[in-house]
Amino acid sequence: MGSRSSHAAVIPDVDSIRRETGFSQASLVRLHHRFQALDRNKKGYLSRMDLQQIGALAVNPLGDRIIESFFPNGSQRVDFPGFVRVLAHFRPVEDEDTDQDPKKPEPLNSRRNKLHYAFQLYDLDRDGKISRHEMLQVLRLMVGVQVTEEQLENIADRTVQEADEDGDGAVSFLEFTKSLEKMDVEQKMSIRILK
Amino acid sequence: MFLLLPFDSLIVNLLGISLTVLFTLLLVFIIVPAIFGVSFGIRKLYMKTLLKIFAWATLRMERGAKEKNHQLYKPYTNGIIAKDPTSLEEEIKEIRRSGSSKALDNTPEFELSDIFYFCRKGMETIMDDEVTKRFSAEELESWNLLSRTNYNFQYISLRLTVLWGLGVLIRYCFLLPLRFKEFMSKHVHLMCYRICVRALTAIITYHDRENRPRNGGICVANHTSPIDVIILASDGYYAMVGQVHGGLMGVIQRAMVKACPHVWFERSEVKDRHLVAKRLTEHVQDKSKLPILIFPEGTCINNTSVMMFKKGSFEIGATVYPVAIKYDPQFGDAFWNSSKYGMVTYLLRMMTSWAIVCSVWYLPPMTREADEDAVQFANRVKSAIARQGGLVDLLWDGGLKREKVKDTFKEEQQKLYSKMIVGNHEDRSRS
């Protein structure tokens, strides 16, 4: 690790990142330190390989999907702002976030954006809908070889049917949100960074 | 260094004199006692003074930072995020309960919200995970005047570094010729190691020396740095097993082979486990041969934990003498991250640390029991070492540093989750 300083001044554009993500300066210093730890060859950005090296992530059945979420639009690298932007979805919701100026863009950790992040994990081709086929594929990731194709198809069919309201055989983001309206998303999709 | 003192030639003279005095002191206090195996209490005093300096320095730095209103980076050894230690089942049930308006006895087989669990767990590992922490140098909460382990520090004590650098040169000129001698008796060998130890200002505390490894056995220890070898070898006679390194280390290894029967392997040979096992067995069965020293973790770990031991050395069937080595990180970070630093850089870092303080515990010998296989035996030895050294006993393979993790662990998670979905399905079809 050597003599790298994680002082806030070392992080480029720290103020704009702070405004965009809502992380405190201290949290950003920690995350930057983490970013540097993952960036083994000190390239200044992370590749898929760097994230795949995290052992505990590799054993997560959805590990690949989560890694994909860091590389939108077919890019192969994620820099520190991009890294933090994804992590910002998991910032706990605090009171100051709720009484927002309506003209300002929605904070990354709003309920809607948290749900959208989860939705993206299902939506493999990013067309804004979870088709039955996509549901099947994600389910297969989660259960591995433990469940038969038939059982899985039944589960996928039932899930899509229950959520699908306009009958197009796929779950749109609105339908997804509706089916999870009672869920305490704010609490379940939040990670608190220690001070 | 002399640019720092641009004024008096008097000061330069003083410096020259002090250097000469230092070297004479070095000679007297290091070489002579090393030959006779006697020690002075000087090093203990040195340690105490250092501790006091560190405490004072940390206070000063915190005060200084408060004045300038800077954010001090305080590393946490327990991770940067708040984690809930609940199991997969409990968490998913929690999630379903909070989102579902259905009656609880009719538990659904799958919910869209199940993904939240995996999602969050995955994100937590990206923010902070146990293993990547193990492989970076251990962070210290207080400061020890080395910029290496504290991120707020911006000035290195130049003079000390240079002085030590000169000391290194002298030691190498002294040691290398000794090593290349044709006839190397055990005592000379031991003396060399002792010199090395003092050269590094290593303060080693040996515990339970009655359990020291005997001939025909295998000595097994956790691995933090090549210095482990020096530390153990200065207190006993061992045959080494290890992989052939290039560069400076290779030269030293070749010299050592001339003196004692060691067993060196190419890294690719190591993959051929049968060959390795055969050679080791031959060595062990010869009762006159020295005990073999093995580090079964396979790679250097940063000395906060003990990773999975490879089972090869435990299959041979000889008596195993476990040894636990624990470094005190306050005085110098002994961890060698071989994917980052070469040998010379590493040695330089070691030489410029204040001191290397460590404890060595010799544990009572263990043999494989009739109903254990090699893996269980390896784990038993590993736990004993971890417990003694106060190190965390981790299940992760040390090979994670170089390879991706095996899929068997992922299957475990998938199995657990499948049981939740499919298990309930069976209940439904019954009712």
UniProtKB/TrEMBL annotation, chain A:
Main location: membrane
Molecular function in Gene Ontology: calcium ion binding
Domain EF-hand: 26-61, 110-145, 151-186
Record key words, sorted: Calcium, Cell membrane, Cytoplasm, Lipoprotein, Membrane, Metal-binding, Myristate, Nucleus, Phosphoprotein, Protein transport, Repeat, Transport
Places the protein is found: Cell membrane; Cytoplasm; Nucleus
Pfam families reported in the protein's UniProt record: EF-hand_5, EF-hand_7
GO biological process entries: protein transport; regulation of calcineurin-NFAT signaling cascade; regulation of protein import into nucleus
GO cellular-component term (any): nucleus
Family as reported in the entry's similarity comment: Belongs to the calcineurin regulatory subunit family. CHP subfamily.
Name this polypeptide is given: Calcineurin B homologous protein 2 isoform X2
Organism: Sapajus apella
Gene label: CHP2
UniProtKB/TrEMBL annotation, chain B:
Keyword Lipid metabolism part of the UniProt annotation: yes
Transmembrane segments: 12-42, 156-175
Main location: membrane
GO terms assigned for molecular function: glycerol-3-phosphate O-acyltransferase activity; lysophosphatidic acid acyltransferase activity
InterPro entries, A to Z: LPCAT1-like, Plipid/glycerol_acylTrfase
GO cellular component, one term: endoplasmic reticulum
Record localization: Membrane
CDD domains: LPLAT_LPCAT1-like
Pathway assigned to this chain's UniProt record: Phospholipid metabolism; Lipid metabolism
One of the GO BP terms on file: triglyceride biosynthetic process
Alphabetical list of Pfam families matching this protein: Acyltransferase
Ranges for domain Phospholipid/glycerol acyltransferase: 217-328
UniProt keyword list: Acyltransferase, Lipid biosynthesis, Lipid metabolism, Membrane, Phospholipid biosynthesis, Phospholipid metabolism, Transferase, Transmembrane, Transmembrane helix
Alphabetized PANTHER family for the sequence: GLYCEROL-3-PHOSPHATE ACYLTRANSFERASE 4 (PTHR23063:SF37), PHOSPHOLIPID ACYLTRANSFERASE (PTHR23063)
Family, as annotated: Belongs to the 1-acyl-sn-glycerol-3-phosphate acyltransferase family.
Protein name as annotated: Glycerol-3-phosphate acyltransferase 4 isoform X2
The organism of origin for this protein: Sapajus apella (Brown-capped capuchin)
Gene giving rise to this polypeptide: GPAT4
